[in-house]
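Lab notebook, bench 4. The sequencing result for the construct came back, and we need a structural model before the next group meeting so we can plan mutations. Quick request posted to the team channel:

Model the 3D structure of this chain.
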Amino acid sequence: MTSSVAFKSFTGLRRASHESPTLHSQTPSVSSLKLPHRRLQITASKTSPKLQNRNLRVAVIGGGPAGGAAAETLAKGGIETYLIERKLDNCKPCGGAIPLCMVGEFDLPLDIIDRKVTKMKMISPSNIAVDIGRTLKPHEYIGMVRREVLDSYLRERAESNGAKVINGLFLKMEMPKGGREKDTAPYVLHYTEYDGKVGGAGQKKTMEVDAVIGADGANSRVAKSIGAGDYDYAIAFQERIKISEEKMVYYEDLAEMYVGDDVSPDFYGWVFPKCDHVAVGTGTVTHKGDIKKFQLATRNRAKDKIQGGKIIRVEAHPIPEHPRPRRLLERVALVGDAAGYVTKCSGEGIYFAAKSGRMCAEAIVEGSENGKRMVEESDLRKYLEKWDKTYWPTYKVLDVLQRVFYRSNPAREAFVEMCADEYVQKMTFDSYLYKKVVPGNPLDDLKLAVNTIGSLVRANALRKEMDKLSV
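Done. Here's the predicted structure in token form:
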């Protein structure tokens, strides 16, 4: 599977030389000339105007982790903040795994975390199971949350800090027209508000704001408004299954991941524990029409452990596969799924959604001097530059892993075999839990490379034998 969008290259960033360049000139050096001493002072000033008798107005479209985190940061920073979300009780088909660093970084209360997963089973196409989690320290875990609980908490916290939460459906946006006033003219948002007073049809309304953050998911209307372009996307399908208390004991602190052509040709199937049920799901980019067939296969692979369970909710949702071609236009920026910030290989998006929402909002707060000035595109662009510089390595590594190991069943067998290595587990969990590409030990890296090559060679040999059998 290939991605149609290249990652941003950081031109201008280069390793500093350890030697100072030697310049040869026939002219006297500056230091030898007797020139009057003058102090050179360069002052950078903002060109955007100060706002008169009001603060900067920003609308956040979408109330998931990206929107909630953005709205809270804006409101705390002195911005007049509006958050528009259509479904305040929406349950998105998300595995619900969050890294340990998110709990501290976003000051999440422990009571919104359903389970603390400390063990995982990676299960190969031939049902070989590898136990993962031996390298976790006593305080380390993967948090399992329900999106309806997490999203609601983040929205309510934003509201308590001054954001106005609107139960509404964003319809379209009028961009400022050309001319001298374009840089300060407002964006006019059209939306339908549902307040329970005018029936199910809602009430059509408009709103004027100075900047917009699009946090409205993979089918983002904000992205369409700025011509952000398309991207490949996966379909995630998930069933919430209520199983007996006796069977829930098995999943008390355990999550399972299944790989194989039967559960997905280019992704994986999962069984993740929630408060009193399990989430069973899968996803695919290349065979969307077969998603229910893959879901049935995932249930069958886990059937002994979920037997007798009752399906209490069915969910489906698109998941972006790579960043959009455009994520920013003038005073409109995209974050979370709307921007395409879901990782390859793992399909993780919650942390990156919340983080991008916060980083974008921080750039607006800083650029507007806590809401006192109008912002410019250059202010919002600082968020993109910081994001790409910080997370490009993570996305690139996971993209490579998916290309190498998700391409065939033999390659997946090799991937599961590799996961048994303790060094691989340590590197994987350290990178996942703390969201950094962790530098390794050179000798262990060499050993890992040799083992990986060995696994792939065996996988290739196995594939050839399987091809013979199929003739």
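The two ends are 26 Å apart (CA to CA).
Will bring this to the meeting.
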